[in-house]
């Protein structure tokens, strides 16, 4: 007896709406995580824009993989580059060490008196290019009342505090350019100071650090720490000494735009309160508060 076969029903594939199903579920779960990663690392609007492919191609896991790599690049780019061999990273925690080094260097600028055999006295002292020669009376007064340079060291502390707060890495290490006392590397988020700048004392160290901080503010004016510097609109009037510095061979191959940026920094580097103010205005850091050393505990009675 033959059996009658029932006609089989061929199952048809169910077309799911695009963007649904397991893949979109994975994407939907990863999107908030990736978004939080961008926000927590300060990736900015450019990094947030990377999430757009995720919303358009939620059915493609490859898009998620590509996005992960892109976000990783953003995170790495937002951090300072690793220090080079021989560099010393300088932070607020190093202020006591730095200030002691500067105080020792400042002592070498005090005039010395050397008695001669015939009753005369020979004076020796160091002076900077912008310092006029001193008379005997001025030398004696300087020996009796040496400058403390507390204002310069306080300015250095303010600058280091602000630079660290906005995400700049300050290192004591040789710049890439020969003869340069300092250097700002936007791509590395690193401000470099030549080691022997410390040996020149508080005055010179404060000037060089302030000069480079102005360059940092110039980068922030153009969009952020990693951006190429742009003029801030400050005074461009140079004194003779600064003009001489700008004519140094270190700038022989600089472009006209680079010379303009250097001119602006040289023209304003002696205003030691300007650097922190520019950083606060051009490179604001959320929740920034001026740092101050802890107050000394009251003496026991």
Feature tags:
single chain; 301 residues; two-stranded antiparallel ribbon
Structural class: alpha+beta
What is the helical fraction, as a range of percent?
40-55%
- How much of the polypeptide forms β-strand, as a percent range? 5-15%
The stretches of 5 or more residues where confidence is low (pLDDT under 50) are: 19-24, 30-52, 69-77, 287-294
Count of alpha/pi helices:
12
Q: Find the count of extended strands (DSSP E, 2+ residues).
A: 6
In total, the number of domains comes to 3
Give helix and strand order, one letter per element, not per position: HHHHEHEEHHEEEHHHHH
Major pleated sheet: 4 strands, mixed
| Spatial order of strands in the largest sheet | 1-4-6-5
**What is the overall pLDDT average?**
79
Shape: globular
Gyration radius from CA atoms, angstroms? 30 Å
Straight-line distance between termini? 117 Å
């Amino acid at each position: 007896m033959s059996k009658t076969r029932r006609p089989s029903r061929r199952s048809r594939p169910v077309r799911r709406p695009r963007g649904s199903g397991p893949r979109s579920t994975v994407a939907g779960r990863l999107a908030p995580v990736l978004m939080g990663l961008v926000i927590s690392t300060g990736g900015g609007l450019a990094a947030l824009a990377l999430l757009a492919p995720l919303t358009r191609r939620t059915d493609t896991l490859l898009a998620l993989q590509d996005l992960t790599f892109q976000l990783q690049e953003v995170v790495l780019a937002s951090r300072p580059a690793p220090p080079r061999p021989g560099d010393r990273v300088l932070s607020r925690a190093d202020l006591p060490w730095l200030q002691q080094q500067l105080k020792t260097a400042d002592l070498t600028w005090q005039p010395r008196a050397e008695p001669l055999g015939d009753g005369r006295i020979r004076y020796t002292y160091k002076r900077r290019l912008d310092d006029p020669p001193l008379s005997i009376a001025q030398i004696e007064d300087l020996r009796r009342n040496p400058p403390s340079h507390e204002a310069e060291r306080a300015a250095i502390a303010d600058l280091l505090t602000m630079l660290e707060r906005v995400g700049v890495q300050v290192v004591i290490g040789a710049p890439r350019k020969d003869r340069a006392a300092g250097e700002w590397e936007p791509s590395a988020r690193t401000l470099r100071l030549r080691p022997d700048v410390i040996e020149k004392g508080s005055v010179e160290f404060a000037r060089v650090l302030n000069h480079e901080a102005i360059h940092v503010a110039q980068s922030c004016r153009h969009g952020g720490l990693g951006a190429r510097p742009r003029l801030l609109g400050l005074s461009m009037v140079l004194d003779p000494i600064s003009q001489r510095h700008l004519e140094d061979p270190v700038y022989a191959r600089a472009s006209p735009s680079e010379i303009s940026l250097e001119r602006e920094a040289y023209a304003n580097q002696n205003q030691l309160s300007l650097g922190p103010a520019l950083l606060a205005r051009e490179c604001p850091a959320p929740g920034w508060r001026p740092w101050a050393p802890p107050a000394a505990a009251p003496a026991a009675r």
